[in-house]
Amino acid sequence: HVQLVESGGGSVQAGGSLRLSCSVYGDTSNSACMAWFREAPGKEREGVAAIDSDGTAAYADSVQGRFAISKDNARNTLYLQMNSLKSEDTAMYYCAAGVRLTSVCSLSRGVYRYWGQGTQVTVS
Predict the structure, then answer these.
(1) What percentage of the chain has pLDDT greater than the value 70?
(2) Which residues pair with 119 in a beta bridge?
(3) Which of 5, 12, 34, 49 reaches 20 to 30 Å from 96, CA-CA?
């Protein structure tokens, strides 16, 4: 069983920064991809960034150049550094673990089996 626990959300002014963390518990040996998704009110959950076991990352166009995904295997922790935040980044952010079907990790929610409970990010 895999458990994902997000933290680090909060309220920030536009242009500011936040770093989200996701603590990973359990065996993720079958989950080569880790990712961050977000869901804003009235919108579908969308992939933000993903990273594979080799450290190769993929980003949504909307966050490319502003967000950075990373992981610390020794601490079993996934991170999302968010800079130059905009009001449209306001959402609940979720950590996810899943399989890799292509050369880079997908940003499609369908391949992710394990999900955290989310952490709220509000940009005003």
Answers:
(1) 100
(2) 93
(3) 12
pLDDT for 70 beyond 90: yes
Radius of gyration of the chain (CA): 13
Map residue 40 onto helix, strand or coil: coil
Strand partners, 71: 78
- Residues 91, 94, 100: CA angle, nearest 5 degrees: 130
| Residue 41 CB partners (closer than 8 Å, separation 6+) | none
Instruction: Tell me which long-range contacts 68-74 makes (C-beta under 8 A, separation of at least 24).
Output: 69/34, 69/35, 69/36, 71/34
Length of the chain: 124
Burial grade of 17 (CB within 10 A; 0-12, 13-18, 19 or more): exposed
What mean pLDDT is predicted for residues 85-104?
93
The answer to whether residue 30 scores a pLDDT higher than 90 is no
